[in-house]
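In this supplementary section we document a worked example of the pipeline. Step one takes a protein sequence of length 340 as its only input; no multiple sequence alignment statistics are reported here. Step two produces a three-dimensional model, which step three serialises into structure tokens for compact storage. The input and output of this example are shown verbatim.
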Amino acid sequence: MQQVESKQRFWWRAAHDAPTPEPDAARWTQPSSRTAEARGPATRGRSATNRTAKRSPLDLQIPRGERRFRGSRRNQRWMKPVPIAAAAIVAVCAGAFALSFSKLAAIDFAAKTNDVMIAAGFGIDQVNVSGQHYASDSDVFDALDLPNVKTFAAFNSDAALKRIERIAWVDTAQITRVYPGTLDVVIRERTPAFMWQRGETNFLVDATGRTLGPVPRANTWNLPRVVGEGADTEAILMLSALRQYPLIERQYAYGERIAERRWRIVLKNGTALELGADREIEGFQEVATVREAAATLKGAPMVVDVRTPGRIAIRPLTGNSARTASNAGARTISLASERP
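The serialised model returned by step three reads:
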């Protein structure tokens, strides 16, 4: 008896917890009282199932003309970017046209402005250049950029000065505007400090190591001469040390840069002074103060080697060049024995 009650109780709970859903049509149609009474509980469920196959005339129906069209998601995905891309293309084309039109308008406006400035008497009609002897006039005029600058309003004096001072011979320059239409350019040129022989060409170099240009044919400079690669940038230090010893300076013929690290000083009689790297002052001092070394400044050509600190090696030359030295008759002088 207990098992039967549990089964009946279980059947009653399952029937109420999971009712059979009825179609929507049952909400709109209700059977007549006679039909409902005639049919039993089982018949009611069957009639509800049969009513799902046919729509009730009371169901909500939308006319065909008022039904909304629903496209697929793929079509909706492509329908939105198309107008955006078209609008972007139109915007780009409009921007390009506006930019080109603005450029043309700016060019036209600049041309009209130049015409107005020239008509008002502010055009650049004349340029006076003074102070230059070796700098080319054409280089100065190119630095002024006169073909593109025709009025004072368009002329940039600071930029023009920088371009002029890039010319090799120009040290400083000054530009003065003389109204209504004249430019005065005053140039101060650089002064060459020595001649640098590179290959078969001689160049003029100033004290800063700036190469000014080839030596003109008609020159009146009595400048010291240096030879070899790297001599243009290192010669000024060696020549400054040489000026401290006038006895050697009066016999100076030229200086040769060896392997871009040391100097060989060739004197007028052919004597070669072999100086150590970064020992120009010490080498000149040893040659000038040691009696036997100082004697080589005149007479037969000799090789005086002062590359080793505290020692002087002297040997004669067999040829006319300092590069062909012979060890015959060479002697070494210790500076310690010469000192009192």
